[in-house]
Amino acid sequence: MNREDTKNANKERKKEINPISPRESLKLDDWLDIGKIVAPQGLAGEMRVYPNTDFPERFEVAGKRWLLRPGAKEPQPVELLEGRYIEGKNLYVIKLAGVNNRSQAEELRDCQLMVPISDRPQLAENEFYVPDLLGLAVFLQASGELVGKVVDIIPAGNDLLEVELDPGFAQNKNQKKILVPFVEAIAPVVDIPAGRIEITPPPGLLEI
Predict the structure, then answer these.
(1) pTM
(2) Each residue of 72-123: pLDDT tens digit?
(3) Distance between CA atoms of 37 and 105, rounded to whole angstroms?
(4) Can you spell out the DSSP letters for the chain?
(5) 2 CB contacts (<8 Å, ≥6 apart)?
(6) How many Å apart are CA 167 and CA 157, to the nearest integer?
(7) Exposure check for the chain: N or C terminus, fewer CB within 10 A?
(8) Cβ distance 69 to 111 under 8 Å?
C-alpha cells in the first residue's frame, strides 16, 4: 500500500484470511488470501472472483495458485489458465484447469484463492503491505505519547488507519477508535521493524 496512491495499489489483505479457519488449524502466516470465488460466469466453467489484492497479475497471469474450500484446513494447488478484469465491478473472471462447466464452477463458490506468503512481490519505497501495518503502535511524534494501535486499514481516497485508542490516551471512554489518514504528511514515520508509526495530526484530528 502506497501512502501517496489513492488507488491503494500494491496491497494484499492477508488479514481477511482470519475468518476462514482457526489459526491453530491453518498456518495463516504461511499464506496470503488473494480473492474469493463468488459466482460462476457463463456456461464454460469460468468464475467471478472478488479480489483481496491489488496485484492484477494474481488473476491475469497463468500459473499455479491454491484453493481453500470452506471448512478445509489446507489449501490445494490449482492451475490458473487465464483471467480478465471486469471494469466497473471490481471483479475478475478466471478460468481454472479442470473446471469446464457451470456446475463445476458453482461447486467452487465461496472458495478462497491463495498464494504462499513467500510469493509477495517486492514493494517500492513508501509502499506497505496491509498485514505489516496491523498491530503497529501509533505515537504522537512531537511528544512521544502513545495514541493506540492499528487494527484495520480502510480504503478511501487516501487510506485510513483505524486506530484503537490506548486507555491512557482517550479522555472520552465511549470513544474507542479514531481514523487517521495514511498520508506522509500525517504519518511521516512508519517503522515496521520497530513496530511503530509516528503521526503529526492536524488540529482537530484527535479530538474525541
Answers:
(1) 0.62
(2) 989 999 999 999 999 998 899 999 999 999 999 999 999 999 999 888 777 7
(3) 9
(4) -BTT-TT--S-B-GGGGGGGS-TTTS-GGGEEEEEEEEEEETTTTEEEEEESBS-THHHHS-EEEEEE-TT-SS-EEEEEEEEEEETTTTEEEEEETT--SHHHHHTTTTPEEEEEGGGPPPPPTTB--HHHHTT-EEEETTT--EEEEEEEEE-SSS-EEEEEEPTTT-SSTT--EEEEE-STTT--EEETTTTEEEE-PPTTTT--
(5) 8, 9, 10, 124, 126, 127, 128
(6) 29
(7) C
(8) yes
Task: Using the structure block, give the residue that is written with the C-alpha cell 503521526.
Answer: 199
pLDDT band at residue 18, thresholds of 50, 70 and 90? very low
Q: What are the tens digits of pLDDT across the range 22-66?
A: 333 445 568 889 999 999 999 999 999 999 887 899 999 999 999
The strand pair at 137-140 and 196-199 is best described as parallel
Dist. CA 29–CA 58, nearest whole Å: 19
Which residue do the cell numbers 456456461 mark? 43
189-195's contacts with Cβ under 8 Å and 24+ in sequence apart are 189/141, 190/3, 190/128, 190/133, 190/136, 192/128, 192/132, 192/133, 192/136, 195/135, 195/136, 195/137
